[in-house]
Here is the input.
Amino acid sequence: MAWARRSLPALALAGALGLGAPSAQASPEDIFGFGPRSSALGATGAASAEGYEAVYANPALLSLARSRQLAVGLSSAVFDIQARTRLSYEPLHGSVIGAVLPLPFGDVLKDRVAIGLGFFTPFDLIVRGRILYPEIPQYPLADRTQSIAVQAGVGVDLGGLVPGLRVGGGFAALAALSGTVLVATDATGRIGTTVDDTLVASYGPIAGLSYDLDDTWRLGLTFRGTLVGNFNVVITVQDLGSLVVPPLNISGVAQYDPAQLALELARVRGPWKVAVGLTYKRWSAYPGLAEATVRCPTVDPMTGLPFTGDCTATAPPPPGYHDIVVPHFGAERSFAAGSGVNVHLRGGFFFEPSPAPAQSQLSNLYDDDRAAFTLGYGVEVGPRSARIALDLFGQAQALIPRRNTKEGGVPASNPGAPGATVSGVIGAFGTTVGVQF
Here is the structure.
């Protein structure tokens, strides 16, 4: 038991290092949209995106670019979430960078191919994730915004083959964590830890196409693959005498964007531009935040053969998420405010049902339906060959109050009993300054 008492501080330190290591919890563009114009237009874009915002909304639309574009800006979000008491979450503040480069091909490829890049980077971190005990009241969506968002794509105009048809592809990337923590005695008999963590990239594909029905109306279709940020820190204990500790896996899925399919119809010509769309999100494949800490061995340590014995290691129950469909709407009114000055007024709405079940069992991982109201403003100054643009957006996402009634009797047997009504507001706002040349 003396060995056990001496090892506890080292094990606690190892566990803290593993749990506190960087991880993400889903990309901010999945919550708010990407770029000030798309975010102001109800997170639309599969048929209506312009400039670098198309790298996420629909890479096919990058091929519309006829000049180089560079934009930089800021974006923020705040959270006011109530579940009996206020759940405390830090605000999000970060920088936005976007760029589009038409490729200078000739002949049949002239003005038909462009590449784009988009970045969102929080100011004070690379990525953040919190995997708490499931019975602790928490709102995982608020952590989902705290991560770097990176996208890259290419768009090709196939109008020479099929008039009005464009295709594009690219990827989104986020951070994932892999590492080990070794707890062992050194030559002097003292217990210490060795930590080796590696931050790696995880990728998800993005593909899109668009088709101009005529000079005014366009259809767009975008597929975004599952984007998963796993983290896995294995704690191994060695050379502690009679004390035997199995490998401990501090692991889970801290970042998860479900596979998505977005279909949109947009009016893209004239002073009034309108976009209406539906996005299907396959949340039923979500495995949950946490994975088993102690796992059944794959190899029998005594024989070296595949393990076939009894194992009572338990795994977290499935989260029970279900697929959802998100409707989007956006409208933009443009008008000339003077010589070489164009102004754009924007507004939109989307409604995202919660994919999570009501929290009636032991867990308190709350989630709500969200009704988002969006607004924006843009102004462009100068000729198209050297134009400066300023864009702003704001979002107010109302969390539709949801009652989570606990089964069973008292908090001792079911944490959070008899239940809690969860409600609140999420606010987002941002601005970019860009130049076309």
